[in-house]
Amino acid sequence: MGVLRRLFRSAGHEIQAHPFATLLIALVLLFAALGGAAQITSVTGDQAFTAENPTLNTFNDAFDRGSISVLLRGETTDPSTLRAVARFDDRMSTVDDVAYVNSPADPVRAEYGRIPNSQSKIERVVGSPDVTFIQVVFEPGLTQPEERPIYTQALDAKEWARFPAGVNVIITGSAAFSAQLSELIGQSTNQLLGLAVGLMIVALFFLFRGVRLRLLPIVAVFTGVIYTFGAIGYAGVPNSTLTSSVFPILIGLGIDYSVQFHERYEEELERAPPRTALPRALSGIGPPVFIAMLAAALGFGATWISTIGSPAFVWFAQTSIFGVMLTFLAGVIVLLPILTIYARFRRRGFGELGRHEVDQENPDPSDDADVDAHVEDDSDDERIGAVGRALGQGSRTLASNPGIVLLVALILTGAGFQAGQSLDTMADTEEFVPQDLPAYVDLQQFRSVTGGGSAVQYDVLVTGSGLKQPAVLDWMQRFERVASDAPLIQGVDSPATLVAEHNGGEIPETKGGVQRVLDDVPEQERQQYYNDGYAHITVIGAQDMSTGQTLSFISNVRNAIEFSKPPSGVDATLTGSAVISTPSVVDQIESRNVTTGLGVLFVFALLLAYYRNLVKATAPLVPMLFVIGWQNLYMAALNIPVSPLGASLGAMTVGIGAEYTIIVMERYYEEKKQAGVSKLDAVETAATRVGKAISVSGMTTVFGFSALTLSPFPILADFGYLTVGVIFLTLVASLATLPPTLIVLDEASDRVTAFFDEPVQGEAA
């Protein structure tokens, strides 16, 4: 502890001696961060939940051609409509990274050489459908950022083609969905930031009374958020649905750190001049807040490790870790130098402080002197206020009855763990996005017309040698028969289907015969089945499958592959983003206890390494373990489902909530050092002096997190309600269950120490 105190004391001396230079460093970092923020990209949909996978990469490069689908409703065979279709077709065919365009204009132009003026001639070729489609197919292997400009070009081409007023034109597909979702994520991030800042201002204005520059923490934390944008930009961490939730969280946590610095600095100014108040304040509050920040980072680190196979959660954890560290840094290099400059120029304060100034011959008292110097006067009592005194008295009362308090807390925790087993879950990635998002509504319309579209098409990549041999095609037909008999599988389309369709329903007996059939198939069609030495089988699933049904479907396909026995040297693997992302999301929910356990273990190891004392390492975690159980009762009461994001909250709770318990515990032991102070006296004084501060910082954190409740993304809104409740429960646990926990553990420690210190009978006195 002494090393950290000395480091923070030295940092305090440097900041108070060079506040303008410190702010200059902060400004340089700010400009550097803006450069990194400009490099941020975004990833949406299943791709955000799909880990790096060699088989998937191979499939994407060979067969995964993204597309835009244009749904036409109305007078689809009117000559003016078909001419507009032809104009759209021709324009999109020239766009970069577009492989080809399929439209109803193609067979009509092939038949007549042009679009005829007669609707009857058109209907002789394409029939008389009320609904038709244009498909814009991309080159394989494009990333989402590369696909989005094609969607923009399609919107422009729609206007340029001048479709008749009687035709409803909807542009949908993966690129359209990704582009709109990416735009909404950016808008949501900005809106949530604005809401969080606004709520912070309200919270600080009404809750952080009695201090100068009460809104200054907003400046510090917003600087830290910009630093975080820069860091993830330089580190290549993309923005996603989950990542956008981090920034309101960071505003809440960053405010917490800055409020703690601000409050302690104000307290020290009551008894010392600015040049000694800052080192004294930073050496006192810096270590516990620093350890609390590391605990929060380790909580997010537990999420990182336990979700290593799901990029969106890893990006969430990485952004959070960057954020807590950089908002802490901003609190030190932005908030404190500004407060120092302000204190220097507010000369009126120095006269009041003069009576509390330390001996000028010893202007830099030792750490112990810092700890022991508690001068109380009217201004100090006014700063504590009625709330602080009430918190102190309440904590003393609870600590006086530790058995009853801890028993009630334990019973509620047990009930919470029991309730957690029956909570609903949110595992479908489509449930994460706003259900009224235009692109999502359009996609649903497209699926209803086409019988599901790509959402129910799953892919099998076939690798090996001799993929055009009749024996391999015979196996594909065998696989089709086995798979079609399995539940939830609606059909199979394979190279064997293609070859048989172009050969009178039969598979040729020789490889040469197969090749002759394939040579007669148009290249665009053939490449959907064979490309780059690989083969592609499409398996059609039932519409509107639940998450559980999707997992069953995946299992059924894999069992069908195994049961049909592919020939020696041939490997068939079910792949695709949906195949990988759905189990990944479910695993994240099911492993939430492991994630929580990792968080507890990491924070315990940190506290044990810092304090080198089992009691001090254990005490801050006991209230957090209570909260982990209580949060399930809260979720059950509000019908909040367990989402993949919410599954990480246990580890986050331990990391974030440890700050409050550490600060209370630190002050308890600080007070206990005073001569003649009992354990209950120490509890009361600790809760009186820091209870109000952590309540203010905790409530400002609640305000910051509450911005998430207004997110248009259901997963973020639910997470917002959940975090608001958990932070409030954490505050309650810190002030209600930590004092009795400290009393119990302290007394147990004293008894153990007395036992080992007691002389052995017969030993010389």
TrEMBL record:
It comes from the Archaea. InterPro entries: MMPL_dom, Mycobact_MmpL, SSD. It is found in: Cell membrane. One of its GO terms (cellular component) is plasma membrane. The keyword Membrane applies. Keywords: Cell membrane, Membrane, Transmembrane, Transmembrane helix. It comes from Haloplanus vescus. Residues 360-370 have a biased composition (Acidic residues). This is SSD domain-containing protein. Pfam families: MMPL. Residues 213-341, 593-744 form the SSD domain.
